Amino acid sequence: MGRHTRAAAEPLDVQAAYAAHGPELYRFALRQLGDGGAAQDVVQEVFLRAWRASDSFDPQLASLRTWLFAIARNVVVDEARRFAVRPWQRQLTDDAGADTPPAAAADEGLVDAWVVEEALRRISPEHRTAIVQTHLRGRPYGEVAAELGVPVGTVRSRVFYGLKALRLALDEMGVEP
């Protein structure tokens, strides 16, 4: 950590980080914003902020990928707020606002959905399947157990330990429940 100097090591570190994580960050931003140009702007801003704050990165607290995605989450929220003040970039209907949440709430919902998706990727496939089927899809434990060919108690156990692993993944990502 202490051996970083801006002149020597950082340009190579940023290049390596961009090569390793840039395309994934772009896809994340594109999914959240639905605009290729805005997604490119987000990726550029992420790496600019990462470069400026590189001495605050601690690999013992989070992986580089997690740190970059935490930055990306903030940049996407900022960009989504900018879209909210540019009405010509939003598609409006005659009854806009009648049954749609405010733009900021919708943007936060998109970011929250990504955070959950990312945290689910970090847990085991068995735990992920149990949580997705029972909590996100609302299926009964017995039905999921029969489909997976395991006892109901196994599904309950996978959900219990999967939720613990999910909380840990969210903590590692720097997200408060």
From TrEMBL:
Keyword Lipid metabolism: no
Domain RNA polymerase sigma-70 region, chain residue ranges per copy: 18-82, 119-167
One GO biological process term: DNA-templated transcription initiation
InterPro entries (UniProt xref): RNA_pol_sigma-70-like, RNA_pol_sigma-70_dom, RNA_pol_sigma70_ECF_CS, RNA_pol_sigma70_r2, RNA_pol_sigma70_r4, RNA_pol_sigma_r2, RNA_pol_sigma_r3/r4-like, WH-like_DNA-bd_sf
Highest taxon of the lineage: Bacteria
One Gene Ontology MF term: sigma factor activity
UniProtKB keywords: DNA-binding, Sigma factor, Transcription, Transcription regulation
Family: Belongs to the sigma-70 factor family. ECF subfamily.
Name by which UniProt lists this protein: RNA polymerase sigma factor
